[in-house]
Amino acid sequence: MRIGVISDTHGLLRPEACQALQGAEHILHAGDIGSPDIIHALRKIAPVTAIRGNVDREPWAKVFPETEVVELAGLQIYMLHDANRIDLHPQAAGFAAVISGHSHQPMQEIKNGVLWFNPGSAGPKRFNLPVSIGALTIENGNITGKILMLPIKP
User: Fold this and answer.
1) What would you report as the CA-atom Rg of the chain, rounded to the nearest whole angstrom?
2) Fewer CB within 10 Å, N or C, the chain?
């Protein structure tokens, strides 16, 4: 199963991000959505599970939880916007992955058998940070991640 992961769009869904998400069977948005239009557009590509981030304060954002557990291809995935605010032990809870955003810095690492994955920011470019999304693959009960740098014009 191929899963697209996007975060920190801040109201901007780049065509490059939509193109990179083509073929995903599910999309995870890890918060700081910025506009409900982002989710509507992503749903044209694949089913979406989204959480709200710290900038998602408008009334439309209330439908999105701050954290979410999603089961995909038999694996449990925990989503929260800011990984520094996690209040559980992912391995003990049986999660295969923890998906976050917030930092705008793409990152993936395995801690105690759990994939910690941040796709970086797909929205407005900030500082010298890249514009990126992520892709997860679940195959034979294993989850792997890949950071995809988006080719954007300056």
Assistant:
1) 14
2) C
Dig out the tokens for 62 from the structure: 């209330």
**25 in Cβ contact with 54 (< 8 Å):** no
Domain extents in the chain: 2-149
Greatest pairwise CA separation for the chain in angstroms: 44
Please tell me the number of Cα atoms within 13 Å of 117 on its side-chain side.
32
Give 2-11 pLDDT, tens digit per residue.
999 999 999 9
Q: Give the chain's mean pLDDT.
A: 96
β-bridge pairing 67-72 and 75-80? antiparallel
Give the pLDDT confidence of 108-117 residue by residue, as tens digits. Answer: 999 999 999 9
CA dihedral 32, 34, 36, 42 (to 10 degrees): -60
pLDDT at position 154, please? 58
- Predicted confidence at residue 70, as pLDDT, reads 98
Phi-psi region of 128 (alpha: psi -120 to 50; beta: other; left: phi over 0): alpha
Contact by Cβ (8 Å): 98, 78: yes
